[in-house]
């Protein structure tokens, strides 16, 4: 889970173009779901946990980096 959140955060920080960021985050989320098979994680539980983790991280960084916070909030919609 932490790896997925970190990957999405890295994309948000390194991709200034919103459309490119959107596509890259969607692919990262899809990649995280493909990895589920390795960890025997239920997709619905993973979806809930990933949304929670992204929301928590967005709140943590909101004051320091509003752009990152917004990107993480948008990523919740892609999950």
Mind explaining what this structure looks like?
The protein is an all-alpha fold and 79 residues long. The chain is built from five helices and no strands. It has helices at 2-14, 18-34, 36-39, 43-61, 66-78. Helix 2 (18-34) packs across helix 5. The longest helix is centred in the middle third of the chain and has 19 residues, at 43-61. The protein is globular and about 35 Å long. The protein starts with a helix and ends with a helix. The mean pLDDT is 88.
Please trace the helix and strand order, writing H or E for each element. HHHHH
Radius of gyration: 12 Å
From the helix content, strand content and strand pairing, which structural class follows?
mainly alpha
What distance separates the N and C termini? 13 Å
| Overall pLDDT confidence | 88
SS element count, helices: 5
Percent of residues in β-strands: under 5%
Blueprint (SSEs and pairs):
Elements lengths: L1 H13 L3 H17 L1 H4 L3 H19 L4 H13 L1
Helix pairs in contact: 1-2, 1-5, 2-5, 4-5
Keywords:
mainly alpha
Please outline what is shown here:
The chain is an all-alpha fold and 79 residues long.
């Amino acid at each position: 889970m932490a790896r997925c959140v970190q990957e999405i955060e890295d994309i948000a920080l390194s991709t200034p173009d919103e459309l490119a960021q959107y596509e890259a985050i969607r692919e990262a989320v899809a990649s995280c779901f493909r990895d589920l098979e390795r960890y025997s994680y239920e997709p619905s539980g993973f979806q809930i946990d990933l949304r929670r983790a992204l929301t928590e991280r967005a709140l943590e960084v909101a004051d320091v980096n509003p752009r990152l916070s917004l990107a993480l909030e948008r990523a919740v919609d892609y999950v």
